[in-house]
């Protein structure tokens, strides 16, 4: 009986195909994967761990760290035992996923391919219709129970129930709504090296890229990192009001989290397995999960209290700047071990914050944008007060951006960087990419939506002919070059600018950051 289920995270498509052409099988330089090549892939590991509890032989494979040829050899040698190959499809690696799926079906057409993650969730109708190599898919985040039931049906009955939540097939294009589902806190860390050697690569990358820099910043010596999920969601999802560039497909639950005892257990499990730098993966922590963080601080476990301070796991995670205004929550986060927070400053100009939909939805959009602007300043002050470092993100470009707004953002970015030079340890400065599933992508494929939004902001987009041309090109397109998409977004949504204008400003801000002693991008 087939009982092996292989969970695969392929490398980004640009790296994947470049390395295939060069005769290499994995990401050689990690240009696009500098960050995630340091850590195991949480989604793949969590699903593999969950399915393994029910008697399946789970196999973990991360193509960012291990040559894809090793996976292909394994599939060929074990084809008659493999029940399914599950692929994690984001926009950046979707073409790679298709390549792996086609290889698997060519090796043995009885092996079922199951796609999931954000890109598939957005484009599942087009994908299921177009690609013979995609047998099934799961949409959204609440997919664990559905995946287990799907595998049971395939293995035991050779047919699939049409009533599984979030499931799509060649015949079922519109999935049933997913229900509530607890976060999986059972992680089998032994899977990381059970079949393929991942840890050696992860540790080498982590220690060469992060260990020294983190020691310089925090005086803490850490050697190995892993993502840990104790919570999932963002306060912005509550009102279906995600930031314009956000492509996260959060499914049916805008917020999901563990009880404080379970959260500490998840942290202990990672620490017991040799990880001392824990990447807490919630999309936003202090605003969305204040109660959990406060309870974790109030009920610290004995094992943690017994550890010397320098031996306790270091925590890092995501925060909105307005969440960092809550002093009691920031104090709790610092108390339980958070040392670095990833904060999306994103824009300096008030109107740009409004265009990016950064503020929480309130009666007065302008007032909330002004409040968000002040929150960026407060975040720096509170980070300094509680000894937390900031890894700041800046987004260049948005619908209707013009030269005046671009210049204003540059001035404000520089003010923020100068003000926070002692707490901002890294600055990610990137052009907006219209990822499928985001509002910015919706503007790209829906000219009427773009014009309505621009009008509400008092800004301008391109003439109808350009908007229609771009929309026609991207309509139902499931594979596209991200650089080309950025070009087209600028052309359609920012007629007063060109990509070179934004690239020049990006380089200016990066240079300014370096002159202040702030690391740029994923050098941290």
Automatic annotation (TrEMBL):
Recorded superkingdom: Bacteria
MF (Gene Ontology): catalytic activity; cobalamin binding; iron-sulfur cluster binding; metal ion binding
Cofactor requirements of the protein: [4Fe-4S] cluster
This protein's name: Radical SAM superfamily enzyme YgiQ (UPF0313 family)
Gene3D superfamilies, sorted: Cobalamin-binding domain
PANTHER family: ANAEROBIC MAGNESIUM-PROTOPORPHYRIN IX MONOMETHYL ESTER CYCLASE-RELATED (PTHR43409)
Domain B12-binding: 24-161
Source lineage: Bacteria, Pseudomonadati, Pseudomonadota, Gammaproteobacteria, Oceanospirillales
Radical SAM core domain boundaries: 220-464
Coiled coil in keyword set: no
Keyword Metal-binding: yes
